[in-house]
């Protein structure tokens, strides 16, 4: 299985409380396994507040809905041994 790397990393974002914010990370190969999103070292699951999706097989997207002050912190995207933070 090829080593999947991060082609385009996360960008820092500034948003207002109550807004949605989207983070994107592009990887080198489609159908990457061992992918994880974290907020302050807490793994995020796909639910009504966190929308996790993959577009065109390589663009991994995390949308945080209606962010609050508790959502301030570091977002981490990990694929295998590679990480990107914002």
Automatic annotation (TrEMBL):
Organism: Grus americana
Keyword annotations: Cytoplasm, Disulfide bond, Phosphoprotein
PROSITE patterns named among the record's database cross-references: IG_LIKE
Domain Ig-like: 2-86
Subcellular location(s) per record: Cytoplasm
SUPFAM superfamilies registered for this protein in UniProt: Immunoglobulin
Gene Ontology cellular component list: cytoplasm
Name this protein carries in UniProt: OBSCN protein
Predominant subcellular localization, coarse grouping: cytoplasm
